[in-house]
Amino acid sequence: MKKIYIERILSGLFIPLSLVFFLQSKALADECINCHRELDDELKVPAEAFQMDVHQKFGLNCTTCHGGNAEEGDIDVAKDKSFKGVPLRKDIPEFCGSCHSNSLYMRKFNPNLRFDQLELYWTSQHGQLLKTGDTKAAVCTDCHGIHGILEPSHPKSWVFPWNVPATCGHCHSNKEYMKDYSISVSQTEDYKQSVHAKALLEKKDLSAPVCNDCHGNHGAAPPEVTSIGFVCRQCHPSAGELFSESPHKAAYDELGISECEACHGNHKILPPSDEMLGTGEGAVCIECHDPESEAYKIATTIKDELDDFKSKMLNAENKLERADKQGVEVSDAKFRLQEAHTALIQVRNLTHSFSLDKIEEKIKEGTNIIAEVSEAGDSALREATFRKRGLIIATFFIFLLAIALLFKIKQIEKKIPQ
Amino acid sequence: MRNLTQKIFVYLDSRLMLSKIGEFAQKKKVPEHKHSFWYYFGGICLFLFIIQVITGILLLLYYKPTMDSAYESIQFIMSQVKFGWLIRSVHSWTANILIGAIFIHMFSAFFIKAYRPPRDLTWITGFFLLLIFMAFGFSGYLLPWNELSFFATRVGTDIAGTLPLIGKTLKTFILGGPDVSGATITRFFWLHIAILPFFTLVFLGLHILLVQILGMSKPIGLSEAKVREVPFFPNFILKDALGWMLILTLVGILCVFFPWELGKKADIFATTPLGIKPEWYFTFMFTTLKLVPAHFLFVEGEMLAIFGFLIGGLIWLLVPYLDRKAGMEKKSPGFSLLGLIVLLYIIIMTALTYLYPNL
């Protein structure tokens, strides 16, 4: 009986032990990694970095890209006929594209992944330069890394939204590197001051645009003057539509002025302010319109009416705040005030139409709401005063009663023997 | 006219023994000495309770105890109903002042050793009244269904849920489910306006009856000859009324200058905001639970603290029977020291909650 038990235990142990030895032998199989780990510096880095590489996660190994036999411990035998070694910089796009452009191959790992990157790359400014033999032009590895390539959705990936400005800036902000191309190197610094960077880097809004959202990624190229408007419309369709209907559209097209950029700039798109409107300091309208023109007058009127609307709104808001601080319930009026805020946003958007009629109509709508809110604020403030007066009157009568009580108490206390 | 009044009095007197009650009130005496001031807190508690009942009934005219409309109904009371803001503010402020007055009344009775027999039952009914009013506070706090009250209720019931064996069942019973929900507000509403008022009537009735039968306790060491006595009616009652007027003025000032806020409507899907704490009278227990180490020997710290409060409460309830010296009209400094330690502990822990909210 005992013997049967021992046999069962041994046979039970055999299967898991065999599995352990098998897995260990498999783990030892990647001799490229084993050897490179023993080497120094730049020969060691690929082996270390590859541990977190997205390709490794999908079961690919060194030989998938570099060829050779990873199971061989002898370096001469391992570098067999299939061994490709390190690709030349000019060959990197085709080297990566050999898999990434192959839809049948890529489908095995991620059916949703695009496979037109290489095709797009050759249309990009980088690709065009590389074609001419300029190996300084960016290739796949400049943006994605080499052996530690992370998925784009990984926050540490070089192409994750909040890392993109630094990735592009690595070359484009380098004066020395860019000296042959006669383009500005201030884009990254300019971008960092923009409203888009504030949304991305401060508010961590991943939907805020970075370099590739306007320039494209694999097909990266500067947008043409005529295309800028379309680029901005991807996120600002309403402003774009209003602009297209405005008289500015035809004039800009005729003069060859880029639409949005003319007033808002390109990389350094500062948070828009109402000061950009009108004819005062910081106004963009006066850059084109002279003081005698009709457009100049309209710009002045728009700014004045907008300022007046904001001032009325602030006044109503102050009344509500004061009433609220005095404890009067004004949440309904505050809710209504939000509608006035919405009207202000709509008015600001309508400035892209440059139509005084449309703007005035919306301002009138908002002004009516503000009048209601202001009346509610006045009423709440009157209520606060009424409460205080009521308290004074009530306290006065309670005080009188208390004094009367006090006299009565003294009177009856005298009757009690000490 | 006079004849008619007399006729009504005779009619009522023959049925309700009004003249006998009058005689009792006129004969009833209240001792007057250097600690008499503390006697008035009993009357103040009663006065505040009456305000609670009146304002509570008025709030019931518009309040809707459902998850979807509780907050809105309070908002309606405060903004649309004539003097609704005042009724709601008075109800909330007096509820808090009432709990404070009960604490003062209890500690003054403790230090005067008013709990000693034969007034042991007065002490016990008073102790239960404190628990009932704390339950009033806990249940009433949730009724406006705002962010603070919602999460404070969640935190409070989570603590109850940590009790061994009965914790989970108790929490589910209190909440009407696994979490604070529409079922909870219905339960808390009925607890607040039906069950607790019933127990209040029973215990308050007994408490007042015992005070009337046994009279006010005199501090130990004051011999009968030395103490001056004043008639309960009208002398004591008039002085009591003076105190009530002061309280009424205070409540009026608080309501006009610091109306009770409604806050933001509770969002059951939101995460618990930072700095959530229960009503001030629970904070000494809340902070203790926060400060207690995770483990004490083999026992969970939080569990140990809860048991500590339960045992402490039991000792506090049974103090008339534990303090035998006081029962024999002898001074018992040990129990005075115990009362002082408990009082200081409550004050320090409450102060810590507000001075160091991120403890």
Keywords, separated by commas or semicolons:
heterodimer; A: 418 residues; mainly alpha; 0% strand; flat; B: 359 residues; Cytochrome Bc1 Complex, Chain C; two-stranded antiparallel ribbon; 69% helix; globular
Largest pleated sheet of chain B: 2 strands, antiparallel
Kindly report the spatial arrangement of strands forming the biggest sheet of chain B: 1-2
Residue share in β-strands of chain A = under 5%
Number of helices of chain A: 23
- Provide the gyration radius of chain B in Å: 23 Å
Please outline the helices and strands.
The complex is a heterodimer of chains A (418) and B (359).
Chain A lengths: L1 H26 L3 H8 L2 H9 L4 H4 L4 H5 L8 H4 L13 H9 L2 H5 L9 H7 L1 H7 L8 H5 L19 H9 L2 H4 L8 H6 L2 H8 L8 H5 L12 H6 L3 H9 L1 H9 L3 H6 L29 H32 L5 H20 L5 H58 L5
Helix pairs in contact in A: 2-3, 21-22, 21-23, 22-23
Chain B lengths: L1 H15 L1 H10 L1 E4 L7 H21 L9 H10 L4 H28 L8 H23 L4 H15 L5 H9 L6 H33 L13 E4 H26 L25 H9 L3 E2 L2 E2 H17 L1 H4 L1 H4 L5 H23 L4
Antiparallel strand pairs in B: 1-2, 3-4
Helix pairs in contact in B: 3-5, 3-10, 4-5, 5-6, 5-10, 6-9, 7-8, 11-12, 11-15
Characterization of this structure:
The complex is a heterodimer of chains A (418) and B (359). With 418 residues, chain A is mainly alpha-helical. Among the domains of chain A are: 119-219, no CATH class; 223-270, no CATH class; 294-388. Chain A contains 23 helices and no strands. Chain A has helices at 2-27, 31-38, 41-49, 54-57, 62-66, 75-78, 92-100, 103-107, 117-123, 125-131, 140-144, 164-172, 175-178, 187-192, 195-202, 211-215, 228-233, 237-245, 247-255, 259-264, 294-325, 331-350, 356-413. The longest helix of chain A has 58 residues, at 356-413. The radius of gyration of chain A is 36 Å and the shape is flat. With 359 residues, chain B is mainly α. Chain B has one domain (34-217, 230-355): Cytochrome Bc1 Complex, Chain C, CATH 1.20.810.10. Chain B is 69% helix and 3% strand. Chain B contains 15 helices and four strands. Chain B has helices spanning 2-16, 18-27, 40-60, 70-79, 84-111, 120-142, 147-161, 167-175, 182-214, 232-257, 283-291, 301-317, 319-322, 324-327, 333-355, and strands spanning 29-32, 228-231, 295-296, 299-300. Chain B has a two-stranded antiparallel sheet with strand order 1-2. Chain B is globular. Chain B starts with a helix and ends with a helix. The model of chain B has no long low-confidence stretch (mean pLDDT 93). The chains are: A mainly alpha (418), B mainly alpha (359). The interface between A and B is medium-sized, with 24 and 27 residues.
